[in-house]
Structure formats: C-alpha cells, structure tokens
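Batch manifest, entry 17 of 40.
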Amino acid sequence: MLKRAVVLLSGGLDSATTLAFARSAGFAVYALTVDYGQRHRRELEAARRLAEALDAAEHRIVRVDLRAIGGSALTDELDVPKDRQLADIEQGIPVTYVPARNTVLLGLALGYAEVVGAFDLFIGCNAIDYSGYPDCRPEFLRQFEALANVATKAAVEGLGVFRIHAPLLYLTKANIVREGKRLGVDFRLTHSCYEPTPDGLACGRCDSCFLRLKGFFEAGERDPIPYAYVPAEYRSAVSVVPVEGKGSR
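Output type: structure tokens
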C-alpha cells in the first residue's frame, strides 16, 4: 500500500510539477485546492483538470474567504502590477502577496493530512525565481514543520512525524519547467496568470506571467498556453505569438 501525501494544488506550473514529483516518489496523492477568494476561477478549473490528469487519489476544494481580510491585489480592489522588469520584481514584497496565505493553506493541508492518515505534505514553494513572498522561504517551512509536530493529535500520540516537502524550493523556473516536462506534466492544463483576460488568456504582463515566460525561454521550451500579449524577447518561448506580442516589453 502506497504512503499517502497531501499536495497543495493551485493549478499553476509549480504546484502541478510538485504533484507529479510526489507521484513519482511513490506517494498516493491527496490533492488540496483552496478557493480563498482569488480574483478569478481559472486556476481552480486548472487544478481540477490537473488532479485528474496526474492521477490524484482524491481532490478536494476547500473554500476560505480571504477577501474578508483583503490586503492583496489578488483578494482586494487593488491593481495587479504589470510590465515590471526583473530588477523590480526582485525588490521588496509586492502587492500580490496575500497576507498569511501559505500559513492558512498549509494549516488546511495539515488538517486534511490528519484525516486521511498522511504525514507528508508537499507545497510548490520556490525561493529563487519568485516574487519576494516571505511565506515561500525555507525558514517559514521549517517553522511550520515544527509547529505541525506539536499541534496535532497524530504527532502527539506518536503515530508519525509530519514532514513538509518543497521539492522546487531551490530550482530556477527554467529547471522547474524541465522537471515538469520530465515528469510528464501537461503544461496546457496549467494556469499561472494573476489577471487573465475575460476569455481566459494569460495576460503576459503580470509578474507571474513574466517569470513563467522567462522560465520557458531559459529552458529552451515552448509554453503551450495562449497569451494575450508576449514581450518580444520571449516570442520564441510560446507556441503561438499573439499580434499584441510583437511589441517590446
């Protein structure tokens, strides 16, 4: 019987690769997606498709309304930053940071793990090609793991030791793309954009789109999802170049 693992699945490139990694490591994967009040539903739809395609043993979607707190461009009436250069992305914590999001998500994953009898939790955090989020750092993950082992019935009763796995933590986005391809992830099913167009196209201008395009470009691969706009320097990294993408960033 396979050991069970809970994998946080957002529907994006990183979480899809993380789920595929957990499966390849021999775990029966219990995928958890959190509908936290994000700006759009596209990533929730992507998570459903990915859980099925990557053969998750179970997939649950839990609703937690972080819009009640706000404080982020993803959960409040704030503008999503567009057309930023890499030097700008690497400075400070952007307005797309959702207060306490990964703490809340891992807390839900921990509860789910106790219910299904899993002691391994996987999250697609990345500490290299990321947007400066404090809850993507290794220090946070270590502290949460310590918390999990003093705050749960399963750990206190000695049934097992909880471990937080972040297999992408020290990979560049290009190497995440390569790893996802090696593991058979269908990138067409993923969604990364913070603010897609009404017809579901990735905007190509937010930080998440920029880092994704940069990753495919540096990996020498083509991103198969459609974009409303693609910066000129990354035209070779997409399967289809939109008319709007022929300009420069």
